[in-house]
Amino acid sequence: MIGRLDxxxxxxxxxxxxxxxxxxxxxxxxxxxxxxxxxxxxxxxxAALKHAQGAGEARGTLSxxxxxxxxxxxxxxxxxxxxxxxxxQPSIDGNTVDMDVERSQFTENAIHYQFMVDRVTGKxxxxxxxxxxx
Amino acid sequence: xxxxxxxxxxxxxxxxxxxxxxxxxxxxxNADSATSSTGQPYRSKQVVFSAxxxxxxxxxxxxxxxxxxxxxxxxxxxxxxxxxxxxxxxVTMPNVNVVDEMVNMISASRxxxxxxxxxxTAKSLLMKTLSIGQ
Lengths: 134, 134
Hints:
heterodimer; A: mainly alpha; two-stranded antiparallel ribbon; 3 helices; 54% helix; B: alpha+beta; two-stranded antiparallel sheet; 2 helices; 46% helix
């Protein structure tokens, strides 16, 4: 049963952690909107989630097939590789933060996070009603 | 918990932007200070932003690394009655460009607001997380 519980909540907890991670990354971009030469970063959420679920490599990750290879580093705990955003409009100071994109992504990510929290709560309620049998 | 890092990131940006606002205030207040304690006209001051990684991969904050003085020559104003006038009757005024400073001020206050917004979003997400399972 504990194994079942783990698989029930595993996906949601992975998704929540990844959303929180992405929120932090987008916050970095918005905070550095006025920093010269700052390059906006993000990661491929769906690939990272697939990777966290144990299905395939996250896009852009390195793998070392030999102990003598350089060991891949960077990215977050889920192996999601940090990618640079391709700027729509270049700016003179070398900054690639597009405030419209970042703000919309930030809001979208926040809504997805809330949705995931909602799903966890729903799942807990389901389990509780199963336990109580009412 | 990466969501808490949003506070550090936005906080660092708030500090940096308020420092920028301080520099703007200083420049605007001294836009007509033809002399100072050094005997020279006031020189426009500008902050230099730099992206700073937070410890343990907690995103990228922003920091003011230095405050530089604008090396541009001062404005020459013809005013022979002024005691500071040179032998041709010109007074060297500060090199503050009031239009630039107003633009800087608007940009800094907008960035400040965005970062406050970001903190509020992170706060509501964390409060939502606290209510999981209730």
